Amino acid sequence: MSKLTIMHNPRCSKSREAVKILEENGVNAEIVKYLETPLTKEEIKELLKMLGINARDLMRTKEEIYKELNLKDVEDEEKLIEAMAEHPRLIERPIVIKDDKAVIGRPPSKIVDFLKA
User: Fold this and answer.
1) Is the pLDDT of residue 1 over 60?
2) Is residue 30 part of a domain?
3) Dist. CA 13–CA 32, nearest whole Å
4) Which among 2, 10, 12, 47 is annotated as catalytic?
5) SS3 letters for the chain?
6) Domain that holds residue 115
7) Is the peptide bond before 88 cis (omega within 30 degrees of 0)?
8) What is the CATH number of the domain that holds 15?
9) Distance CA 111, CA 7 (A)
10) pLDDT tens digit string along 34-46?
């Protein structure tokens, strides 16, 4: 069985739902509370590679900090990654990682499909 990891925010209902889905499917995943243990820029880059998306697609664009930092007009991937490393609240959640692939669990049903793949 592959090792699974979930990037989790216990205060987020979608993230809690994702943990529940993993438990219901008998998956023992490592839970990373990324707000308490922020990802490094390198870890974010690796995550982007696994997800097959760009930095903006990983960002929570409705977060207040996104507006405060005026990130809407930033095109530089490095600057967006830096912002997520400094302000982990900007990172979309939940994210489930299996081997060298990952999925953002929105909607949480994506996790079930990901587990079957």
Assistant:
1) no
2) yes
3) 16
4) 12
5) CCCEEEEECCCCHHHHHHHHHHHHCCCCCEEEECCCCCCCHHHHHHHHHHHCCCCHHHECCCCHHHHHCCHHHCCCHHHHHHHHHHCHHHECCCEEEECCEEEECCCCHHHHHHHHC
6) 1-34+93-117
7) no
8) 3.40.30.10
9) 13
10) 999 999 999 999 9
Q: Is 53 a catalytic residue?
A: no
Cβ–Cβ under 8 Å, residues 107 and 18: no
User: Distance between CA 15 and CA 92 in Å, rounded?
Assistant: 10
CA distance 8 to 83: 19
Here the tokens at position 20 are 């529940």
Single-letter code of the amino acid located at 41: K
